[in-house]
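re: ur msg from earlier - yeah i can do the iron/sulfur cluster complex, just paste it... oh wait u already did. ok heres what im feeding in:
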Amino acid sequence: MRDELERILNRVQKPARYTGGEYNETVKDKSDVDLRVAFCFPDTYEIGMSNLGLQILYGAINEEPKMWCERCFAPWGDMEEELRRANIPLYALESGDPIGEFDAIAFSLGYEMAYTSVLNMLDLAGLPVRSADRAGLTPLVFAGGTSCINPEPMADFVDLFVLGEGEELDLEVLRLLRYAKSENWDKRRFLRAAADIKGVYVPSLYEPEYNEDGTLRRVECLDGAPERVTKRIIEDMDSAYFPTKAIVPSTEIVHDRVVLELFRGCVRGCRFCQAGFAYRPVRRHGTGYLLDKAKRALESSGYEEITLSSLSTSDFKGLPELTDGLLEWCEPRKISLSLPSLRADNFSMGLMERVQKVRKSGLTFAPEAGSQRLRDVINKNVTEEALLNSCRIAFEGGWNTLKLYFMLGLPTETDEDVVSIARLAEKVLHTWREHAVNKARGVKITVSTSMFVPKPHTPFQWEAQVGVEEYLRRVHLLKDSINSRSIVYNWHEPHVSLIEAALSRGDRRMGAVIEEVWRQGGRLDSWTDYFGFSRWIAAFDACGLRADFYANRVRGDDEIFPWDVISVGVTKSYLARERAAAYRGEITPDCRVKCMGCGASCLLERRKCDE
Amino acid sequence: MSRILFKKEGRAKFISHLDLMRTMQRAFIRAKVPIKHTEGFNPHPYMVFALPLPVGTESVCELMDFKLAEDLPLDTVPALLNRALPEGIEVTEAYEETYKFKDIKWLDIEADLFYDSKDTDEGGLLRLLTGDKLVMEKKTKRSTATVDVRPLIAACDVKRADEGVLTLRVRLAVGDPALSPAQLISAIGQNAPFFAPDFARFRRLELYDKDFHVFR
Ligand code: SF4
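and the outut:
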């Protein structure tokens, strides 16, 4: 380690997040490596290391001979200041080498508020932030992750996007880069060739044109680039890479445990949920496969907790067998099992008892809306009866803290819907009074609301977000409707949600705004310590754009969207049908009851959805 | 009770004490060396460390006590653990303990003192630390006291390692009262600002009992 860096590490908070050297990290012999990749996560170490995608792709790339994938995270402010002062370029944790000298820099973009950190990390690496200003073939800057299903806001900065699941796709891109390097291709030639890989979007090969009113007129594909880029999926989950030797951080992270991914996609069709549409169709792991991998992951990590991960865990067929098998193994070893993402509707007594055997953590339900009418609009198919029944089981089982999540500002929401959130919480409280096993301990019901953010590739992609003031009015309406001291109400700050809404449905012109925000000091925007609303608004002004154009405007039925160039399998016409059904208050059955022909099955070559 | 002697060096020196406990706990599980848990509502593995090591300080003499939950020959434990530990942490011995941690009275420290813009003479620093008195303002949690910390230094040697770098080897008292390496640097700065280093790097070398016998 350089003396200078050592001195810095003695001054900054939590230095272990900047050192690397954790158990199971991959270190390769540089002389035996011909392609070096920096996997960059534009947020802190604690957040990034909790990301399952990072652990999967890190492992998958490092399985490839002669490729070495290392990690790099966004430094916290104190560290950034020290690095800049000492002129130390951003380095990868494994080798300590500057990532600016790597062949490829891969960013994981899971959420829009991380965008400014991408620019900041490129700058800390000593690289120009704009793709057009980086002339050489390497380092190639590419990005993937959920928020890339609308890649346009980051199109100016990223050389290419990988859409969908990266286990195979990332390697195809990296192998092509290795070939391009050996053949001395220039960047242009490489990018053109890469655009022929399924799932690759090269923004420089697409040229948007705008109408007078600021909407998109058309997008020209240059040089024969494909008109639409369809996301990639792993069809056979059990044959894909599975991280049984995940890196075990030496310092505490957010999710400090084994994460067992059960399946991808979701059979439900909650109309507000981007993940629910973006990850379709459902593909699952086998139960036996999962049991085996879980044991191996626990043994190789030494973790004392395992959590099951998916969009809706209780929809996993074979969940009883899986939890039984896991508990049989975990209990004697004092390993605890946690089950997030349970649905309130089929939260069964048996399941709860099984988990309870090991540990009783707080319970969270997300009815999302207070009234049945609005739950039908958003297709959140959970009834009040089912929710209260689940609560009853929980209270009888001894739970006495419960969190309930809701969104405010959902399409068609009325004041009555808002007030019914309070009524629902009161019914939950009433259920506790009637069924609590130990009333002396009291009860705490927490109601949380956030401002609804309409997202691309969902039935609500045409919808306007409610304004900040309107959201706050509804917050106060709800607050005034809650009359019990056992019910605590928290609401999320709406300004971040407004910017998130603008970014998520932004077009390519948004790049200028992101750059301006970053130039004015913006970074780590998902942290309240750093987020500056006025900085964003000033940047929109400086770029001649308006946040409300992107966030608060109802889009025309035929409007061309910046993200139309990307296909996640689900068709735009299906989304439009779902939107119409929402306005009629009609629910759509889940994929297991009836296939509604969303289009996602076209991504499968050898099997059917949910097989 | 069983005890391990281990090193914590290189990048691992930035692992905090709290994180080290977690790291050790997981390493024992990975190594399949089962240890006993505490009784009670929230059982956790029984592990006791001799002297918490400050973040950024290296050591070749860390001690940790634990109870094996299974009959396992202790001499196999270091190799098992070393396969399961992160880079920089290495177990060198495992044995049944005979002496209690409270009997640790002295600690040998090596400190590299860096002077960025000047060259210093080792003699001056040695004279300062081996004089009759070394009076300093010592901060405790609640108050600041003026004390002579000279009795808390049992041995001292200074060498010039490089231009602008002095290497100090010093035996410091632990327990109550104690003189931590950071306090020693502060004492130097207070008494002779000229010798206040721009950066100091510490390394624990050895532990002793009250009679200066190596503590194991
Ligand atoms: S194609 Fe049918 S079954 Fe498959 S995800 Fe779409 S709606 Fe569900």
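cool cool. The domain at 3-230 of chain A is CATH 3.40.50.280 (Rossmann fold). ping me if u need the other ligands too
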